[in-house]
Amino acid sequence: SEATARLNLGDYNETISQAGLAISCYQKAGAKKEEGKALITRGVVFFRTGRWDEAIDDYCKAMQVSKEAGEVKLEVEALVETGRVFRQQLWHHLAIDHFREAEWKSRINNYRHNQAEALYERAATYLQPQKHLAFLMR
């Protein structure tokens, strides 16, 4: 899509604009899968620009429309992206919960790549707090 192309070029303001237009069009057309993809794309921009709350909102909406459309793989992608935001904000327990759910949904649907990604992200989250608590061990 246009928004994804803009994202890959690093044109964040235009990506937000294009994704917003796409989301509106997909909502009107009842195209839930495409709406979910556009929400994730815009959420990635919000994440990369430090707009955490907006990223979480878009990822949560993407999870909802993905469930409604029966698009488990897209729901898993939104779960992983949400977990990344929570990890960035140091809300490790929420990040781990999202990665676990993504892993579980991937496993029961035999999405091996998504399962591996969720496992990796969960492991990275378990390792991250050690960096932030190192000053306590001095």
Describe the protein in words.
85% of the residues lie in helices and 0% in strands. The chain has 138 residues and is an all-alpha fold. α4 runs antiparallel to α5 (72-88), α5 runs antiparallel to α6 and α6 runs antiparallel to α7 (112-133).
Summarize this entry quickly.
The chain has 138 residues and is an all-alpha fold. It has 7 helices and no strands.
Mean pLDDT: 89
How much β-strand is present in the residues?
under 5%
In total, how many beta strands?
Answer: 0
How many helices does DSSP assign? 7
The largest β sheet comes out as: none
Order of helices and strands: HHHHHHH
Report how far apart the termini are: 50 Å
For this entry, what is the oligomeric state of its chains? single chain
Task: Tell me the structural class.
Answer: mainly alpha
Q: Give the helix level as a range of percent.
A: over 70%
* Low-pLDDT sequence parts: 134-138
Q: What's the gyration radius in Å?
A: 16 Å
The shape, in one word, is globular
